Amino acid sequence: MQRRRKPFNIDTHAAHDASGKETVLRFLRQLGIDAKENPNRYGVDLLGKNIDHTWEVEKRPEWEDEWPYSTVHVPNRKEKFLQLSMIYAVVNKDLSKIMFCVSPIISECEQIEVPNTEMTWGEYFFNVPVNEWQVYDVAAFEYHY
After folding, report:
1. In this structure, which CATH number among 3.30.1180, 2.40.128, 3.40.50, 3.40.1350 belongs to the domain 10-140?
2. Tens digits of per-residue pLDDT, 42-65?
3. How far is residue 83's CA from residue 78's CA, in Å, rounded to a whole number?
4. Please, which residues have CB within 8 angstroms of residue 121's CB and are 6 or more apart in sequence?
């Protein structure tokens, strides 16, 4: 079957991108990791300043308290970033939780077609078991600026 990619949606991007990235940046800083937003808007979202890691961030409005599924779908269109020492970060609806998974685990997972409201056919995702993700409660950390 032909693979398709979801077209860029400026409204979705505006609603979720900045808050998701800012939440992950604050959390990383609390862990002592110095990171910054990538100035290349077509590149991976966040860059480590003194380390080789990068982070791709996605805010998932369907995730409230507990992750509601047995797997996490990472879009196939993010495959270009999996060659980096990339960590995929998923942020929940109210920015209170983050889960992380490293690129080597994601790239080894099966890719499956997942019909959804924006793409009814042809969009593929890495089907990553939820137990491969590290989940953190952002509220348990106090931010200092």
Report:
1. 3.40.1350
2. 899 999 987 788 999 999 989 998
3. 10
4. 1, 4, 113, 115
